[in-house]
Amino acid sequence: MVSRRSLSHTILAAALVGSTIHAHAQANKPHKVVFQVSDAEPAKWNLALNNARNVQADLGADQTTIEIVVYGPGIGMLKMDSPAGSRVAEAMGKGVEIVACENTMRAMKLGREDMLPQIGYVPAGVVEIMARQKQGYAYVRP
């Protein structure tokens, strides 16, 4: 029969090992960043895409989680006729998640058929950024 003291020590040891493993996992956690794109200027779109590429180059694509949230006047970046379309596709091909705000799309009377293929969608761009910050993402607005 296992004594209470022995059982207590076993539980304590398991808790310590578990907390050590959790702390180690936190230390090795990939870098996470969310970029805001809400300007109508293609130069800003390209700056956000350049920043995302540079983060991957400097920290390692396998060590980074990058999301670009596009809303407001910046939504033009993700429209089918966007001058940044090929760069958006290139970034997505390298693992960058790029999402459009459905609130903005509704306000501008845009449907998914008006947008670049393969992008993601979120109900509200600002709320998405807030959620990502709460999850520990760094916030960048180029």
Structure write-up:
- With 142 residues, this protein is of the alpha/beta class.
- The protein has a single domain, classed as Hypothetical Protein Ychn, Chain: A, CATH 3.40.1260.
- Helix content is 47%, strand content 18%.
- α2 (42-59) links the parallel β1 (31-37) and β2.
- The termini are far apart.
- Mean pLDDT is 87; it is low at 7-28.
Features of this protein?
142 residues, alpha/beta, Hypothetical Protein Ychn, Chain: A, 5 strands
How do the helices and strands line up, and which of them pair or pack?
Layout: H1 4-27, E1 31-37, H2 42-59, E2 64-70, H3 85-93, E3 97-101, H4 102-107, E4 120-122, H5 125-134, E5 138-140
Parallel strand pairs: 1-2, 1-5, 2-3, 3-4
Q: What's the helical proportion of residues?
A: 40-55%
Strand content: 15-25%
> What is the H/E order?
HEHEHEHEHE
Number of distinct helices: 5
- The total strand number stands at 5
Based on secondary structure, the structural category is alpha/beta
Q: At the third CATH level, what is the topology name?
A: Hypothetical Protein Ychn, Chain: A
For CATH, the homologous superfamily is named as: DsrEFH-like
The average pLDDT score comes to 87
Question: What is the level-2 CATH architecture name?
Answer: 3-Layer(aba) Sandwich
Give the CATH level 1 class.
Alpha Beta
Q: Which strand order do you get reading across the main beta sheet?
A: 4-3-2-1-5
CA-based gyration radius: 21 Å
